[in-house]
Amino acid sequence: MRKLRVLLLCHPDAIPPDSLEGLSQKQAYDIKSEYDVAAALRECGHEVRPLGVQYDLKPIRDEIENWRPDVVFNLLIEFHGEAVYGQNIASFLELMRVPYTGCNPRGLVLAQGKDLSKKLLKYHRIPSPAFAVFPIARKVRRPAKLPFPLIVKSTIEDASMGISQASVVDSDEKLVERVHFIHEHLGTAAIAEEYIDGRELYVGVLGNERLKVLPIWELKFERLAPGALPIATERVKRSPRYQEERGVVDGPALDLAPELARRISDITKRICRVLELDGYVRIDFRLGRDGVPYFIEANPNPEVAQAEEFARSALHDGIAYPDLINRIVSLAIARTGAEEE
């Protein structure tokens, strides 16, 4: 690939430094994607200009018009502190007619709502847990056909925000309590879905029209506390110390029958096409004790740090990290018709 001018969009607090020297473990962890992406782009010979934005679109427009980047590497997952505004950044970049990495705005909208994505996929006969949505300021009434145990989450937040061991409930009283927790602490509607006892599987995808499914990855829990359930809580996702204490590791999903692995791969591609996802995506499943892979959620533009599941799965497939970042950039440019995928 030729040398490119790459505008790296991120949160102002996550502008990557030239070096991680002198940063605490937490400080380095919080900017891992931004730092790794910038370093990989420079390793590939590209010119990188980070830009931190949060409340104003004008700096983006100014950089695009004045610096004229070849592509924008979009690591913004929120705006004004709201996850639902993430798709508006992609829409703005489309209006500016500049190639950008990650998913298109329509795919971001369809995947953002856990309830909407499940409704669409249920229509296409893709297995997913039964669920109910509880809007803010409405009485919490569980449908009679929705059995316990249930896991309660935000309908729109990602990165396991608001999820803890207490999110899995087995009574109407606990359901009401947890729904109110989501309403009060996250300010969003809550979704309660059947808790699937089984394995936590992640499947990465690269591509626009032609989709490449990466090796199936599994989140494993080696030292759970007594009585704890194997779920991806907020602490599991965000706390390196907790991950180390509880033996939270990820790696290739072992002991999957070839037929089951093919089925999961085929379902993953169907999900991407139904939800109109492109660029780079991660689809999350729970593999139930009944052998059924249940769709949990779609994650367009997932964490792409070198140590995260997506990049590790790509490496397992023979794609080195700099090559992965270059491929994501190539997909952005290909979507404009300027180059082949």
What's this model, at a glance?
This protein has 341 residues and is α+β, with helices and mostly antiparallel strands.
Description of the structure:
- With 341 residues, the protein is α+β, with helices and mostly antiparallel strands.
- The chain folds into three domains: 5-102, Rossmann fold (3-Layer(aba) Sandwich); 130-194, Dna Ligase, domain 1; 196-335, ATP-grasp fold, B domain (D-amino Acid Aminotransferase, Chain A, domain 1, 2-Layer Sandwich), CATH 3.30.470.
- Helix content is 36%, strand content 21%.
- Strands 8, 9, 10, 11, 12 and 13 form a six-stranded antiparallel beta sheet that branches. The chain has a four-stranded antiparallel beta sheet with strand order 4-7-5-6, covered by helices on one side. Strands 2-1-3 form a three-stranded parallel beta sheet, sandwiched between helices.
- Helix 2 (32-43) packs across helix 12 and helix 4 runs antiparallel to helix 5.
- The protein is globular and about 60 Å long.
- The relative contact order is 0.15.
- The model has no long low-confidence stretch (mean pLDDT 95).
